[in-house]
Amino acid sequence: MSETVLVTGGAGYIGSHTAMALITAGHKVVVVDNFVNAKPDALSVVAELTGVEIPIIDGDARDVELLTSVIEDHGVTAVIHMAALKAVGESVEMPLEYYGNNLETAIATLQAMRDAGIYKFVFSSSATVYGDPESCPIPEDASIGATNPYGMTKEMIEVIIRDLAASDDRWKVTALRYFNPVGAHESGKISEAPLGKPNNLMPMIMEVATGKREKVMVFGDDWPTADGTGVRDYIHIMDLVEGHVAALEHLDVQEGYEVYNLGQGEGVSVLELIRGVEEATGMQIPYEVTGRRAGDIAECVADPSKANSVLGWKTTRDIAQACRDAWNSQ
Ligand SMILES: NC(=O)c1ccc[n+]([C@@H]2O[C@H](COP(=O)([O-])OP(=O)(O)OC[C@H]3O[C@@H](n4cnc5c(N)ncnc54)[C@H](O)[C@@H]3O)[C@@H](O)[C@H]2O)c1
Questions:
Q1: CA dist., res. 280 & res. 319, Å (int)
Q2: Does position 11 have pLDDT exceeding 80, yes or no?
Q3: 12, 127, 193, 324: which has the highest count of C-beta atoms within 10 A?
Q4: Residues 56, 61, 65, 70: is their CA dihedral positive or negative?
């Protein structure tokens, strides 16, 4: 069934790529974004590449009335909720802003959906809900316990949507726990372009590759990992967003609340990612090892088998391609 999907926070890195994947799969997209961490440019490129107009509403996803009228005016049938502040370090310094923005956008979006009588909801959660995992790869039923306010907002919203689904069986809601999205659309025309200082490793490495930053800071080389640097599960952005299309389409046969890991299922260390970019660019990427960052963990790798079997979704792009596409988008 073709859906008209409201993507809150849809102008951002994952949202703009999600719009691309949804339109390619035959769905319609409407975006609400307040542009606190994005510009409209990426969505203009998506519209250009697909030849499909994307209505973009410059507004706040905490505004129930606005969201309700967007849902009604555009005939929205499902929502992918991405609007959030997402920097872990900043969330420790500004917990009220993070709890305020992230919880309020989620609750307002759900209220607007209920007011408008639509019940299909996909939520951008995060592997940060697992905190410091007991072992890797991590299945969805591993214990959760975020270690920072950002991760706690994701954990709390998961509880809210689970309780909501239990209260009324019209709700079909899915939380997608993302691991570490990297790379860009194959065209190279949409990229990860955060306003201000990037917080994720790949955009930092890209800043070094493009001469905007002198070196990559590597936080600790004494972790209990093969080369001593932190190991994460990097997933190509296009694989990640195709997972959203699969999750959305699966809502037709889903009952209540489900949660899925979206990850590659393989660990890559900081030094391996730097080497991957060196291979993709033919450049040397200078780096400096400093002390561990408070709250960091050694390893975080997904067990994606539930999404593989239930959603029929699998990653098809490797880390080398993610490095090439990230570089191409620069
Ligand atoms: N990028 C990652 O590594 C990662 C990992 C796990 C989960 N996530 C989650 O995925 C979602 C998208 O992340 P992203 O990397 O694309 O981030 P992003 O910052 O590029 O996109 C988030 C978008 O939300 C918008 N926004 C924030 N508050 C808003 C509000 N009150 N009203 C309207 N718009 C608002 C921002 O302007 C931005 O365009 C977020 O919920 C994030 O927490 C991201």
A1: 10
A2: yes
A3: 12
A4: positive
Domain 4-182+234-263+303-313 belongs in CATH node 3.40.50.720 = yes
- CB-based contact 247:122 (threshold 8 Å): yes
In degrees and rounded to multiples of 5, residue 250 shows phi and psi of -70, -20
Name residue 260's beta-bridge partners.
Answer: 176
- Where are the alpha helices (H) located in 94-236, listed in sequence order? 95-116, 149-167, 201-209
Report residue 211 as tokens: 């001469």
List, by residue number, the catalytic residues: 150
DSSP annotation of 42 reads H
By C-alpha distance, which of 137, 163, 124, 192 is closest to 308? Answer: 137
Provide the 3-class DSSP secondary structure of residue 17. helix
Contact (Cβ atoms closer than 8 angstroms) between residue 178 and residue 240: yes
Nearest atom in ligand 1 to the alpha carbon of residue 85 is: 27
Residues with CB under 6 A from ligand 1: 9, 11-15, 32-38, 60-62, 82-86, 101, 105, 124, 126, 178, 180-181, 194, 200
Could you tell me the distance, in angstroms and rounded to a whole number, from the CA of residue 169 to the centre of ligand 1? Answer: 28
User: Which tokens hold the place of 148?
Assistant: 């920072």
Q: What is the pTM of this model?
A: 0.97
Q: How far, in Å, is the centroid of ligand 1 from the Cα of 222?
A: 31
Query: pLDDT of 141-191, one tens digit each?
Result: 999 999 999 999 999 999 999 999 999 999 999 999 999 999 999 999 987
Ligand 1 pocket test: pick from 65, 67, 82 the residue with the most ligand atoms within 8 Å of its Cβ.
Answer: 82
Structure tokens at 156: 């709390």
User: Which amino acid does the sequence have at 171?
Assistant: W
